[in-house]
């Protein structure tokens, strides 16, 4: 038994939940994958998987072993791809987590270009607004809006999100169009709250017009912690919402959202890519970072200081 082949087979069965699907992705027969996992269990003297005629479930021991295995396989892959013979053609599995709206509107539509450039990279894309522990979850990098405050991560500023306050026509017909941001603090107006991931605190926005600067908290009945859900609530007319312009533009063009207070500006939100400092920046991660920087420069470029 090749121990690394057995580990790869076991990890893929866990990830796909099926010996058949694991065999297909590994370009092996189902019998070979089954035998490799059985041999691994025999060597370890522990059951890693519970099998039934309908499904495969990982055991508690198997789950703990899987976390170790994927880190070991990732390190092995990084060691191989760091060699000059592989650097020109990076390959292997890359795990990335990004905000769901950014994934839906910018990254996913461009993935055909990434695959055309780097066809041997398998990209596992997590799309969420939740806090991701890169070490515990074995994620290579994350993209997040706002400052990266975790000192254990290396962060790179890759864009700036220009934003505004928006409301659906149905909301404005019912409550009227506010002419000053302070009106959002009183009846009949409502905002939709956006919950920060840490502590569930509401996100407050600051607007500026000339020398006038105002932080808006607003009254709210509804609050969400996911960008796509938050925008859906705004489109449904449940309240005014703060949105990056890249999320709002198409809806404004279709008449589904109206920008409020166009003579006021909001501070741009920095967009950062972060990865653990103790993780080797493999060839596949390096080319992904370069590709993302290029992509963000087209959609949400970094604001350069005015001279």
From TrEMBL:
Organism, scientific name: Stenotrophomonas oahuensis
Keyword DNA-binding: yes
Family annotation (Gene3D superfamilies): 3.40.190.290, Winged helix-like DNA-binding domain superfamily/Winged helix DNA-binding domain (1.10.10.10)
Family per similarity comment: Belongs to the LysR transcriptional regulatory family.
Signal peptide residues on this chain, from the entry's feature table: none
InterPro entries for this protein: LysR-type_TF_proteobact-type, LysR_HTH_N, LysR_subst-bd, WH-like_DNA-bd_sf, WH_DNA-bd_sf
Domain HTH lysR-type: 1-59
Keywords: DNA-binding, Transcription, Transcription regulation
UniProt cross-references to Pfam families, sorted A to Z: HTH_1 (PF00126), LysR_substrate (PF03466)
CDD domains given in the database record: PBP2_CrgA_like_3
Protein's name in the database: LysR family transcriptional regulator
